[in-house]
């Protein structure tokens, strides 16, 4: 064995051209000769002189999906998952109005980043190091952000909140969803997995609502079928063919968009989606945001495609820059305006009733998600989100009716008091007991589309 090891080691000091390769096959001799020429001094010098910038750029573009090959599966155009330019152009104005962003990058940068940084500079310049209670720079030049004092809710706001809550009608969760579907048609988003897009029958709508309630409340299909008086196979088939992540996301988008258009939602305070301020990729980012907002693509699909690329996509890099800019704008506004800080604190406090609403909805299994698979857990979380947003949208709509009734009686209802009211009210909704999903009988209780009558307390 020692002799066998020493033989190849002895070849290290021998020049390659002195070796006898006549015993090797012709193809192997040709390969070794070519390899030897590549690694000579002259070959390495010639190799250093030759550059392939176009091919290298093409390789990097294919890896980052900035360059695509039509008809290829590996190097396909990532834009096929979004709206086509022809489909996107008619929706551009609606999307920009929805997210309150201009269609040009220059306007977005001017009204966002530049203004926020200018306001922050003025705030810090006007505050001295000894101003306690204001955002300032101390003697060492460090930023000091004092905490806000506790905010007292006016007694008028509490009285108005209780009065509006007493005007809300009492409704079981199934009746609430049926009524909301009559206004938004969100059940039409639940298409068959086989691709059939025919209108849903009354029985199919009933089964879809049963599945949504079963997953959101964590009752499960077995107990839900007993509560509804149907066999287990009926909701099981419906869940398999209709209740998917894509359809749940689309239905939730319909409800959120409907809630956004309600007048009280602007007074209660609602989140708005922001868009990028990266000039070079602004049109592409708007198209991507619109495709996500209108349900053409899912965020998990886009992020998965970007994560699978071996190099960072230009659009992904622009999105990261957008995130940094938006955080900068938010931080600058937060530090410059005490009113903005107070508003954010108030909205955070409104999140507590929202968490309580979710806990009341997800009451079975002690609020624990017991499904073992990630896809099942994701679909169940979407069902809970869908029902939570449905309750908020329904309550906001009836709050608006109550506000209109009070103002019609000559009462003054200031918008400043409405900002203290959260639509996460849940005491007038029944999540328990026998669940009767009657698609045909429930609309007759609405009084010709005017809504339900308030139940006496």
- Radius of gyration over all CA atoms, rounded: 32 Å
How do the strands line up in the largest sheet? 1-2
Based on Cα principal axes, name the global outline. globular
Structural class: mainly alpha
Order of helices and strands: HHHHHHEEHEHHHHHHHHHHHHE
Instruction: Kindly state the percentage of residues in helix.
Output: 55-70%
Query: What distance separates the N and C termini?
Result: 97 Å
Total count of domains: 2
The proportion of residues in beta strands is: under 5%
Mean pLDDT: 77
Short structural summary:
This protein has 457 residues and is mainly alpha-helical. It has 19 helices and 4 strands.
Q: How do the helices and strands line up, and which of them pair or pack?
A:
Blueprint: H1 2-10, H2 26-38, H3 41-49, H4 53-64, H5 85-99, H6 105-126, E1 136-137, E2 143-144, H7 155-166, E3 171-172, H8 173-184, H9 202-217, H10 221-228, H11 233-241, H12 245-261, H13 263-268, H14 282-293, H15 299-308, H16 314-336, H17 338-361, H18 374-408, H19 415-418, E4 429-430
Parallel strand pairs: 3-4
Antiparallel strand pairs: 1-2
Can you describe this structure?
- It is a single chain.
- The strands form two sheets. The chain has a two-stranded antiparallel sheet.
- Strand 1 (136-137) and strand 2 (143-144) form a beta hairpin.
- The chain has 457 residues and is mainly alpha-helical.
- Helix 12 (245-261) packs parallel to helix 18 (374-408).
- The protein has helices at residues 2-10, 26-38, 41-49, 53-64, 85-99, 105-126, 155-166, 173-184, 202-217, 221-228, 233-241, 245-261, 263-268, 282-293, 299-308, 314-336, 338-361, 374-408, 415-418, and strands at residues 136-137, 143-144, 171-172, 429-430.
